[in-house]
Design goal:
The protein is an alpha/beta fold. Helices cover about 55% and strands about 15% of the residues. Helix 16 packs antiparallel against helix 21. About 5% of the residues have low confidence.
């Protein structure tokens, strides 16, 4: 505190930070990247452990015997789907009632703003079929959910058969909480524009949920899917519970579709851990739900998806074994005395046995954000006109800063036009692609989806030609003070945006910081225009999204060519807009209304005259 309260020492510190500003910023950037890459090194991570005492032991005896019967039910379910040409709602209701469940249905419809070409639909409609297994000796205030997503095609039939088999088996067991077996033919969300029938049957407060996805009679491994809407993750104890029972029963388990390696001290083992962690980062940054469980998380219900994988390995797992694994997990969840809360909610996982907590990965982002603050401090000092230090030096020093720089007559006119025009461009990027799709379809030979995506790209590109002319409306044109004030505001604005984003979704905030921080730190109007403009475009939010598409495909071991990557890029844009409309994903409005306008402020600085 003495260093900051003493005017002479404070002045010396400020002088040091401004004199070594560029070297410190370079070191912070490299240190931030190195810190993040080091998170996947096993000695730097924490080993997973069960924090909830009620689930600390797997000493339960799993006796589920009806795996073959469940597969027979799955084949019967598939036959009825082919017979009716869609979801056999009546058959499912009768079958669940025959197993002793209280069965109810709920219909829902939602018209999309434009057609979803990936799933070939313009309207989302379906029926949720849910059966409640009442707890015979409990107050019926709590519930667990086992769900299986259904679709008209042949996917996930085995999950429905196993769900029905488990429901019949659980009927003979003693549960202290109610059990909800749900067959979902689509997503349900209390979102604007969703039409749905009211719930007729109600159970207790949902404590946890598992979504089961099986599309083959033969399963070689089970993959755990954690990423939910807007980057939300379930409590880490749910992942620990899954891994504990996989180890006990002998089921091969993966995360991000990758098996764990034991050779962490080799280059191959470290690379494998980095790839696994990066896949989680990219999925979390997308903001979309990667399974049915993702929509439970928005209601503070701990949920995950268990996805069966048939990769033709020699290791095989039958339906009976999977049923016993689910039985063990639900029997342990049945012992909960309160909601899962003792373990972490913010984490990254390079493997199922190790995790990186928020206290370990946030310094990587903090090092990048420090660059913005250091550059802002440097501009602050350059803009200030400190007077001679006297006995009241501190007061006079601060007063001169405020008088010369923070005067409304100087500050507001310097950046107000740029802020307004940049954000109006962002509003256009957010609203016009959907609103103008009909006009685009009438005048150009494109579909509705293509019209929305191409309009968004056109507005994004056209925005580059607008803000850099706003200097004509700014007082003090041609002076150094004008662009420095604008850059100072842009740096602080970007620091706040990235900081708030990282608190909600670290992965998204960190990825944006990797590209935006160098652009914000280096841009000035005195740099070579053509070369700097190219670098600014390559570091823009749109190009960052394009890079992520190619990196994701490489990590998935499914590399694509440049044309294929471009088509995936267009698909990601359309899906981002649809996810925002259907589920309430915040990534698209964040990029369009806040991140892109902030980048336009930096673009304005480059073309300052």
């Amino acid at each position: 505190m003495g260093l900051l309260s003493d005017p002479n020492r404070r002045k010396a510190l400020t002088s040091l930070l401004t004199r070594l500003n560029t070297p410190i910023c370079v070191v912070c950037y490299l240190a931030g990247i190195a810190w993040f890459m080091g998170l996947a090194f096993e000695p730097f991570t924490l080993r997973t452990y069960m924090s909830e005492n009620a689930m600390g032991s797997t000493m339960v005896e799993e006796r589920f015997p009806a795996g073959e019967r469940a597969l027979a039910t799955a084949r019967e379910f598939a036959a009825h789907k082919r017979k009716v040409g869609g979801m056999p709602v009546e058959w499912l209701v009768k079958t669940m009632q025959a197993r002793g469940l209280e069965v109810f249905t709920q219909s829902f419809t939602r018209t999309l703003p434009f057609p979803d070409e990936n799933k070939e639909r313009y309207m989302v409609r379906g029926t949720n079929i849910y059966g409640i297994l009442r707890a015979p000796r409990a107050p019926r205030t709590e519930a667990l959910v086992l769900s299986a997503p259904c679709s008209p095609d042949n996917s996930n039939n085995q999950a429905v058969g196993l769900l029905l088999g488990l429901a019949q088996y659980f009927r003979s067991k003693m549960f202290y909480v109610e059990f909800d077996c749900t067959s979902l033919s689509g997503f349900f969300s209390h979102h604007s524009g969703m039409d749905y029938t009211p719930l007729q049957g109600r159970a207790g407060s949902i404590q946890a949920a598992l979504s089961l996805e099986l599309s083959s009679d033969v399963i070689t491994s089970l993959d755990l899917v954690l990423e939910g809407l807007n980057g939300q993750l379930p409590n880490l104890d749910l992942a620990n519970l899954f891994h504990a029972f996989c180890q006990k029963i002998g089921v091969l388990c993966t995360i991000q579709g990758k098996l764990q390696r034991g050779d962490w001290d080799t280059a191959e083992g470290y690379t494998h851990a980095v790839q696994t962690m990066m896949l989680m980062v990219l999925k979390q940054a997308s903001g979309r739900p990667w399974g049915d469980h993702g929509l439970f998380l928005r209601y503070h219900i701990e949920a995950a998806s268990v996805r069966g994988i048939n990769s033709f390995r020699q290791y095989k797992t039958d339906a009976t074994t999977i049923g016993r694994l689910l039985e063990g997990m639900f029997r342990k969840l049945n012992n909960l005395l309160e909601r899962l809360h003792q373990s972490y909610f913010f984490y990254l996982m390079p493997s199922l046995t190790h995790f990186v907590s928020i206290g370990y990965y946030m310094p990587a982002f903090g090092l990048l954000a420090t660059i913005l603050l250091l550059r802002a401090l440097d501009l602050w000092v350059q803009l200030g006109t400190p007077a001679q230090v006297t006995e009241d030096g501190a007061v006079l020093f601060i007063f001169s800063y405020y008088k010369s720089f923070l005067s409304p007559s100087v500050l507001v006119p310097s950046f107000k036009p740029s802020m307004v025009i940049s954000h109006l461009t962002g509003v256009a990027l957010y609203t016009l692609p959907v609103l103008s799709q009909e006009t685009a379809v009438e005048h150009f030979p494109v579909s509705e989806t293509e019209a929305v995506v191409l309009t968004a790209i056109a507005i994004y590109t056209a925005g580059l030609a607008l803000p850099h002319n706003t200097h004509r409306f700014i007082s003090g044109e041609g002076t150094e003070q004008g662009w420095r004030v604008l850059k100072l505001v842009a740096l602080l604005y970007l620091a706040v945006l990235l900081g708030c984003t990282a608190l909600i979704n670290f992965s998204l905030g960190f990825i944006l910081a990797i590209t935006l921080v160098p652009a914000a730190a280096c841009v000035t109007p005195h740099m070579p225009k053509a070369l700097t403009a190219l670098a600014m475009v390559l570091l823009s939010p749109g190009c960052t999204l394009l890079y992520c598409v190619f990196i994701f495909q490489e990590l998935q071991e499914a590399p694509v060519t440049l044309p294929e990557g471009w088509m995936l890029f267009l698909s990601v844009i359309s899906q981002g807009i649809l996810d925002h409309s259907l589920y309430g994903s915040l990534v698209y409005p964040l990029l369009a209304l806040l991140i892109y306008p902030c980048w336009l402020l930096l673009w304005n600085i480059l073309f300052w005259k």
